[in-house]
Amino acid sequence: MIIFTLNKNYYAFSSENVEEITNKMPWTPVPQSPAWVQGLVNLRGNVISLINFYKLLSPTDETKELWYNNIIIVKNNEEKIAFMVDEVAWVLDIEPDTIQQLDNKMDDLVSSVFQVKDQIVSVINMEKLFL
What is the pLDDT of residue 100? Predict the structure, then answer.
């Protein structure tokens, strides 16, 4: 699991979906795009959508400009998306029996949770990201 922070909360992607982790890079804004689309980035000649993950997860909250340090490039088949995150905290092997599936999903983007180093980590449902 790739575990990262976002506005003092911990989230995780399955590492099998992560192509690379990079430092922040310049982006080009996209007019008339959803609020959570920060813009487009050029990653070695490939144009990829840059998603402001905080705005995607908290669309109704008053969003403020957040400082971010890393971009996580996630892939699904041939499609790639870049996500702005505060910081990548850990890359860990998590035992499947320590992951608790959520029955009452308050948010379809979060499918399960687990605990690591006294932190509750929300696991992002990758299938919902690519719909």
Answer: 93
- DSSP calls for the chain: -EEEEETTEEEEE-GGGEEEEEE----B--TT--TTEEEEEEETTEEEEEEEHHHHH-SSS--------EEEEEEETTEEEEEEESEEEEE----GGGPEEPSS-SSTTEEEEEEETTEEEEEE-HHHHT-
Measuring CA to CA, which residue among 97, 99, 96, 93 is closest to residue 114?
99
Q: Who's near 127: CB < 8 A, 6+ residues apart?
A: none
With a cut of 90, say whether residue 62 has pLDDT above it: no
CA distance to 53, 77, 96, 117, per residue, from 6 (Å): 8, 26, 23, 17
CB atoms within 10 A of CB 41: 20
Q: Which of 45, 47, 43 minimizes the C-alpha distance to 22? A: 43
- Which pLDDT does position 25 carry in this prediction? 92
Whether the pTM exceeds 0.90: the reply is no
| Interval 75-86 mean pLDDT | 89
Q: What tokens were used for 3?
A: 């575990």
